[in-house]
Amino acid sequence: MKIAVIAANGKAGKKIVDEALSRDLDVTAIVRGENKSAAKKVIIKEILALTKDDLKNFDVVIDCFGAWTPETLPLHTTTSQHLCDLLSGTNTRLLIIGGAGSLYLDKTHTTQVFQTKDFPKEYLPTATAQSNELDELRKRNDVKWTFVSPAADFQAEGERTGEYILAGEEFTLNDKGESVISYADYAVAMIDEATKGNNIQKRISILKK
Q1: At what angle do helices 183-196 and 11-22 cross, to 10 degrees?
Q2: Which of 42, 104, 116, 164 could cross-link to 109 by cystine, CB 3.0-4.6 Å?
Q3: According to the model, what pLDDT value does residue 68 have?
Q4: 0.90 exceeded by the pTM?
Q5: 119-145: per-residue pLDDT in tens?
Q6: In this structure, are residues 84 and 93 in contact, taking their beta carbons and an 8 Å threshold?
Q7: Would you say 191 and 22 are in contact if contact means Cβ atoms under 8 Å apart?
Q8: Environment class of 19 (CB within 10 Å of its CB; exposed 0-12, middle 13-18, buried 19+)
Q9: How many other β-carbons are positioned within 10 Å of the β-carbon of residue 48?
Q10: Quick one: average pLDDT of 1-21?
Q11: Number of Cβ within a 10 Å radius of residue 140
Q12: Alpha-carbon gap, residue 129 to 77, rounded angstroms
């Protein structure tokens, strides 16, 4: 299986590259500059400069792109739609790192986490941007996309246990009442999804057992 990891130099991207390599998958890092991941194959390009030819030989493209400043937040949607356009009508799957803020509070799907009054204001712009990104993805029936939301507490330095709970659209807690996942275990779930492809054109969520 051939996998491309976009923004492989980021913390999540590096973990995903490591996990894929540990399973002897063929991994290519797509980065803006010098490759800092463990991948031996590299494409150095800005995400919006990628072409159909760049992605045509991959089975799965994993998008780890993130934007955090007010002026760049719309790029969540712009970049994922660009990737959708490149992969439209192909068998290449697109897996995207989402956010927890867009998860729904119950099965009626009327209220999202970021719409509650107690949601931290400092995270609201990013959560809103990623919710908009998901809304636009849902319109794409021409692409085999999967939006993978981590738990609310997404821990960069957490341990790799190799176990996780696979949930869906609703905000979920584990038996300890936690919504938490390490980057390492999130990477396990992401590569599981890449290899199995069970959730095409769906949003899933990942949390610690």
Answers
A1: 50
A2: 104
A3: 85
A4: yes
A5: 999 999 999 999 999 999 999 999 999
A6: no
A7: no
A8: buried
A9: 11
A10: 97
A11: 17
A12: 7
